[in-house]
Amino acid sequence: MPSKIHHIAVEVSDAEKSADFYCSLLGFTRGDKFEFLDRGRTIIFVQLGETCLELLQDAEYDTHVAQPKMLGFKHVCLETTEVDAEVERLRAAGVKITTEPFDTAINSRISFFEDPDGLMLELWQQK
To answer: Rounded to two decimals, what is the model's pTM?
Structure first.
């Protein structure tokens, strides 16, 4: 039986730009970088706590099209102690906030924002 999630792969347009975003703005630690020149692929791992994101950059890709009711992974959620302060910090850095902070019915405060490729990220705070 599996014991934990090792990583989640995210297709990105620019692995260096995405790694910088996740590390400088969100506190991830940069890990290994791998380049597969024969396949036109670059991979950079970034880690927050025990969770790694595998940032995959391919020479060719299709633009991400978000569909509100599609099946599959919806977003990555990042826990914080202060959603409102984080939103203001990210906004000041030019990050697109897609949903302003609000209190949920399940005793939390959340907000949504986008990474450099428009992939959805959530900030979550226990109330």
So the answer is: 0.86
